[in-house]
Design brief:
single chain; about 130 residues; mainly alpha; Growth Hormone, Chain: A; about 80% helix; globular
Amino acid sequence: MTVGRLTGDRLVRRWGGRRVLLWGGLCAASGFFIAVVTPLHLVVLFGFLLIGAGASNIVPVLFTAAGSQHDMPASLAVSAVSTIGYAGILVRPAMIGFIAHLTSLNLAFAALGCAMLLVAVAHQRLPYHSIEK
């Protein structure tokens, strides 16, 4: 994830934020699904590498989009995105644990993969021009 964050600006300049969201979401979702379906430890580690690489630039692109939109003041938009992000940090582990307790950890990780697919699907819905190439 660190390498992805450090190279993210170049990726966004080259391909645009929408493509970074699309391919980042698909890459992270693939990583979750790989981690769920394989029993081989090295392949699972590769899946987690894909998760980190794919997810590394999603939040920075969304912060850029929030700061450049014109529906509300940028300071409020960035604060809203930040609040949603911190709420996710607090709630998501409990949700993963709850799903894992009711079903299995594999199903909980598969749900995270589905959530990352939503990021990939939603990339076209962002109306912000600053993330387009």
